[in-house]
Write a structure and sequence with these properties.
The complex is a heterodimer of chains A (225) and B (417).
Chain A lengths: L1 H20 L17 H11 L1 H6 L1 H25 L18 H16 L5 H4 L2 H26 L7 H12 L7 H5 L3 H17 L7 H13 L1
Helix pairs in contact in A: 1-10, 2-11, 4-5, 5-7, 7-10
Chain B lengths: L2 H13 L3 H9 L11 H5 L7 H16 L1 H5 L11 H11 L7 H5 L6 H14 L5 H15 L1 H22 L18 E4 L4 H13 L4 E3 L7 H5 L2 H18 L3 E4 L3 H10 L6 E4 H10 L14 E4 L12 H8 L5 E2 L22 H9 L2 H10 L3 E4 L2 H14 L4 E4 H7 L4
Parallel strand pairs in B: 1-2, 1-3, 3-4, 5-6, 5-7, 7-8
The chains are: A mainly alpha (225), B alpha/beta (417).
Chain lengths: 225, 417
């Protein structure tokens, strides 16, 4: 399933991007004034620092920034589960980085995003896709984090980072094998559920508004001119 | 709706799908940050007036017919069939949006709701359910361009009658023409609106600045843009472009009309002339010392309403403020950041629809009324015909106690000999 999920994710995302970027450009500017230069730098600023959200919905901004930073750390953490990257150890840390707090922050942020959709007017704006994505990501994060929390906070030592690394590397090297320690560990079901929900999430990616992660920058560039 | 009509409409939809439009239709996360951005929602807090909600009406049809998700799993994105009911929803969304693009300032991605609404407007045209009056006005403009000779004489006679009024405001040397028309080799082609108020003050200022100018045969307003018909918008625009090329002018100056200015500035493409708004030209005359203004002409505090299409969407922000600094010592800023200025509520063709939209325009613009009242100004200046009409209607309805004036008229009234 992992390969199927990654296949759908990669092919789907590339196909969508090719379709979008092959369309003709808008003949006129879609800029908002006053203009600030350099435009590309301001577009980066708008994309990564979300100044409009900070100004109009400061609480949402705190959660959004926390979420996106934590998500980035999460990706780095998974890369470290794949292999050792010296560059990531600029600040020495134990794998998985974040001492369990990355997952905790992500979980809290996702709950916040989910529950704010229960309240008007965001409730009326939302479509099932918005809830499904948040629930799917929450389930992925909670089961993944639980493994980390168990090791870090409850002294659960049956599974170590090297076990996860062995599993992830085997997938990456196209020789999938689940280490015995992982197969018979008490937390193996969490691993299974974590991978399952993560697969669903990335399968959904190219067909959903998650494409905003790629399209946000060119869109902000349009606004900046 | 029969299959053929639906297919024809979907072809129109497909024609609007360029790169930017795909961005806008693929990306919204429905975060709700744009909720308070719309003056209509701020004045009448109903979900249907939230920018994201309006856009979602178009997006649901997009999902249904142009996205795999809508075909494989329609309920997940609530994709929707293009039907008579959908057309009604599109009408309500498109003609309650003034296209001010204030929501674009709020959106973390910069989704342009006005552009998304252009799909709705085009579908309505395709289904012949657009506001008929706008199409008729657009057709009249196009016809005027096609048969200029038929109305030329009448136009010139009408202009002749206005010349005395111009001379009253600025006396000319003997032999000079107060309102030059069809002058080949003039520096500036002024494109006015139909109506003396758009011609007389501007002519006086051009003459005072000793400008080598000529008046266009055509009115600036582009009803094709209001109704959302790209073909008609282009035809109406081309009349002026062709005239400017024929007369070999260096600059085309658009009168106080927001849509006309933005269409000319952004849709004309690369041309052998520059495009300016009359406000920019007046500010330039002041900077160059070609005109001088009497600061004592107007008493009482003055505020200025930045027309959305000229300021937020056109970039003319500093120029009117520069002019106003020459007109008063008591200028009251309406919005410290012009890009956040509230729309007057009259754009997008709503004012052109007249009485039909009056009640909605009045109810949907109470935030504008509050904004104006807060300044304590006695004169409310603006530089757009639509805004002027809408603000005057608001002034009457809500007793704002201001005098609504065109900036060009104020400049003409304050000219120092």
């Amino acid at each position: 399933m992992v390969y199927l999920a990654y296949g759908v994710f990669l092919i789907g995302t590339v196909a969508r991007l090719v379709k979008i970027f092959r369309e003709p450009k808008n003949p006129n500017t879609l800029q908002i004034y006053p203009e600030r230069r350099p435009r590309w730098l301001w577009a980066l600023h708008d994309t990564f620092l979300l100044p409009t959200v900070r100004r109009h919905k400061p609480l949402l901004w705190v959660f959004l920034m926390s979420f996106h930073v934590a998500f980035l750390l999460l990706i780095l953490g998974h890369l470290e589960l794949l292999a050792e990257f010296k560059v990531f150890q600029v600040i020495p840390h134990e794998v998985f980085l974040g001492r369990g707090f990355v997952g905790l922050i992500l979980s809290l942020c996702l709950l916040f995003f989910l529950f704010r959709r229960f309240k008007s007017p965001v409730r009326e704006l939302s479509v099932p896709e918005d809830y499904y994505l948040l629930i799917l990501l929450f389930l992925t994060v909670i089961f993944g984090s639980e493994m980390d929390w168990a090791r870090r906070w409850y002294g659960y030592g049956e599974l170590t980072a090297s076990d996860y690394r062995a599993y992830l590397s085997s997938i990456f090297l196209l020789k999938p094998a689940v280490p015995e320690t992982m197969m018979f560990a008490g937390h193996s079901f969490m691993m299974v559920l974590h991978v399952f929900f993560a697969n669903l999430f990335i399968i959904f990616f190219p067909f959903s508004n998650l494409m905003h992660s790629i399209l946000s920058l060119p869109m902000n560039k349009l606004r900046r001119g | 709706m029969d299959e053929k009509t639906r297919n024809d409409l979907l072809k129109l939809f497909q024609g609007k799908l360029n790169q930017a439009m795909r961005f806008y239709l693929e990306t919204c996360t429905r975060c709700g940050v744009c909720t308070e951005a719309c003056h209509v929602y701020a004045s009448m807090p109903q979900v249907r007036y939230i920018a994201a909600y309006r856009a979602e009406i178009v997006r649901r049809i997009y999902k249904k017919y142009f996205k795999g998700q809508g075909k494989a799993w329609p309920s997940v994105g609530e994709s929707k069939e293009l039907s008579e009911m959908a057309l009604q929803e599109l009408y309500d969304a498109a003609y309650s949006c003034t296209g001010c693009r204030r929501c674009m300032v709020y959106c973390p991605f910069g989704i342009d709701t006005q552009m998304v609404m252009s799909i709705a407007k085009l579908l309505l045209i395709g289904a012949h359910t657009e506001p008929e009056i706008l199409t008729m006005l657009a057709d009249t403009s196009i016809e005027k361009g096609r048969s200029l000779d038929l109305f030329k004489e009448g136009f010139l006679a009408g202009i002749k009658n206005l010349e005395a009024e111009v001379v009253k405001r600025w006396r000319l040397e003997a032999g000079e023409t107060a309102i030059p028309v069809d002058v080949e080799g003039a520096n500036l082609l002024y494109v006015a609106l139909a109506g003396a108020h758009s011609i007389i003050p501007a002519a006086a200022v051009f003459n005072a600045a000793r400008e080598n100018w000529t008046l266009s045969f055509f009115e600036a307003v582009n009803f094709g843009a209001f109704v959302g018909d790209p073909a008609k918008t282009k035809l109406i625009l081309e009349r002026i472009v062709n005239e400017a090329k024929r007369l070999k002018v260096k600059e085309v100056c658009i009168c106080e009309c927001g849509t006309a200015y933005r269409v000319m500035k952004h849709l004309a493409g690369k041309q052998p002339f520059t495009v300016s708004s009359v406000t920019e030209v007046h500010a330039r005359y002041l900077k160059e010392g070609r005109i001088k203004l009497d600061k004592t002409k107007f008493s009482g505090p003055i505020t200025y309403h930045h027309p959305c299409q000229i300021a937020r969407n056109g970039g003319v922000i500093e120029e009117p403020l520069y002019i106003l600094r020459h007109l008063t010592n008591d200028f009251r800023d309406m919005s410290p950041e012009p890009k956040y200025n509230w729309c007057c509520g009259g754009g997008g063709g709503l004012v052109a629809l007249g009485e039909d939209t009056l009640d909605f325009r009045m109810k949907s613009s109470t935030v504008k009324v509050d904004q104006v009242k807060k300044t304590g100004a006695k004169i409310l200046a603006t530089a757009c015909e639509n805004c002027h009409t809408q603000l005057s209607n608001l002034n009457e309805r809500y007793q704002m106690g201001v005098e609504v004036k065109f900036l060009t008229s104020m400049v003409a009234d304050a000219l120092v000999r």
